[in-house]
Amino acid sequence: MRLRIILLGLAAGLLFYHVAVADVVEGKAQPTLSFGVVADIQYADRDTASGRHFRASVDRLERCVADLNSRHLDFTVQLGDFIDRDAASFDVILPIYDRLTMPRYHVLGNHDFPMPREQVLEKLGLEAAYYTFAYDGWRFVVLDTVDIAMGGGWPEDSENYRQAQRWVEKLRAEGLSEDETCNRCGVGERQKHWLRDTLRQARERGERAIVFGHIPVVARPAWEWGSFYNHEEIREVLASAGCVVAYFSGHDHAGGYAYRDGIHYITVEGMVQGPDETAYATVDLFDDRLEIHGVGRTPSRELALPEDVISVGLCSEMDGEKEEAVKLDPLPKGICTWIYRYGDGVSRQVHAFNSRALPHLRFKYFFPYAGSVGFDDQPEGEAAVYYRANAVSAYARTLPPGTLIMPIVDGRADKGEFSGWTDEQYREAARKVAKHIIDDPHAAGVQIDIEPFRPDHLPFYRHLTEMLNAKGKYCTMFVGPRRHDLLTRIFESCNVVVMSGYDLNGEGMDLDGYRASMKGSVARFQQVAEETGTQYMIGIPAAASWGEFEYTAGGDAERVETGVKQEEYVQAALDAVKPYHEHPQYIGLSLWHMSDPEKDFEEPEKATKRTKFPNIIRETVWKMLEDY
User: What's the whole-model pTM score?
Assistant: First the structure.
């Protein structure tokens, strides 16, 4: 199946321009899927105002629908502001949109609520205001950017309405005019958590994602208030997901484009705007690019897709290789970091630190996120494995020579999907993971983390370790402190155990409790390591957001001091590992987790919300790590 995205924007005038894309283009790769998008139809039975030709939307949409029906599309999405006002407008414009012969979806806009929200949802045939659907390995996410709003169909005594009031009052206090605040709305906490979980699951399935919302996440400079109130928080969720390639919106009838953190933000021109010229587009999605073919006022663009979100898909199994117990050489002492998003600034920090630190304290390992084990839509006793080798190769090109890169492959099994399997089923799951790591020339091994960990998972780890060791590669596990007998079984099932010493006592909690927990846990790890001959590392909060240690949230945008500096937590962790520096089983620290200071935050010390704190290592902490 090919992918062609049709963008319908401002469709005006008698002449409806048609951009035809041949189903077969000689010598060119075929796109894989097709869908349509229309923005700001905004029909109303009223005279033209502010350049908006409300009655003309009827004819424009009819022509658009006819054109879309002549194509082989998989679905169409309208991006909100379906009407301008009056409930009767739905009865005029909805039957035209429903003539589409492919599946069709709706996004809610700020003009779509002339009646209570539940009635609007019923009229549009929506079970929920925000939702998700999938096609051929792609995840499509529809957001409700008027979730928190003084409009949005919410009664005045609802929390969604009252929250929007608080936002507007705050903006007015900052000097914004009524015009600049009247359309302020945003995404509520529940929806934000849903979005984060939805994108995490998409990433774990190996899906790439496209997100739709009425209001832009990134506004054009000429209309700086043309985004919703908490757009930066949502942009952070999209950027950190690791699978989002594009966000399509309407609302700003002039249209626009921006590129942030590997994501294309496309604002589609409004159909209601302008007296003459139409505006829509066809967009082809290829493995490596989006091709937008603009019509009328909509510009044409070719947009490359970042390598690190190009899906690799399901792996094939290894061909019946026999597992053999192979003893690998011990790993050298050094430190490492977890990292979820590539940045040149991280690489520069690593080089700078290695030039100053003692030899046994330098970065020698890297744990980048690169894949996942998924159980959804799989037969019982089977797992799908997804892996992005290019997420590993990016680091290999820029890190110091000799750095051992062990990509993270994680997963969730909250409903027990990974429990109670036979030994052969665990072996087959391990084979799928091992195949990717063995085939990746840049991977020195893997860090595996399927949560929640259960003891009956251990055959999987044991098989994986044996398969990787046979090819000279290592298997590391990330676990929290456990009782002695279970910890012994864990150490016997892999090459290196990485202890979570990051949140032993919770975020921003008692320093003395953290210090005691670390001391006892590290001592237990050392004892078991000596008994089993296995090496271990200790994860510490050197790179964790200090907002989790020094501050706690206090109201909408305030921070409350805890009275403890993050450096004190880091020092407590260093004190716990110091007695074991000379022991061969202890090989170093793992820093949770590093962000790129050159792109993740400009002025971290001025952050006011705990969720805004970046994972950037302070200079004082760097100094502590150089010679501890």
Answer: 0.52
- DSSP assignment letter at 436: H
Cα 499 from Cα 480, distance rounded (Å): 5
Distance CA 139, CA 198 (A): 9
- Output the CA angle 578-584-589, nearest 5 degrees: 45
What CA–CA distance (Å, rounded) separates 554 from 81? Answer: 36
CA–CA distance, 200 with 36 (Å, rounded to integer): 26
Q: Please report, in angstroms and rounded to a whole number, the separation of the first and last CA atoms in the chain.
A: 57
- The identity of residue 240, as a single letter, is S
Q: For residues 461 and 468, give the distance between their C-alpha atoms in angstroms, rounded to a whole number.
A: 10
Whether the CB-CB separation of 604 and 596 falls below 8 Å is answered with no
Q: Which amino acid is at 281?
A: A
Q: In this structure, which amino acid lies at residue 152?
A: G
User: If you ran DSSP here, which 8-state letter would residue 30 be given?
Assistant: P
Cβ atoms 468, 437 nearer than 8 A: yes
Question: CA-CA distance, 59 to 63, in Å (whole number)?
Answer: 6
pLDDT tens-digit map of 567-621:
898 999 999 999 999 999 999 999 877 777 666 554 555 555 444 556 778 888 8
User: What residue has token string 């590997």?
Assistant: 262
- C-alpha 457/C-alpha 459 separation (Å) is 6
Distance (Å, whole) CA 314 – CA 72: 28
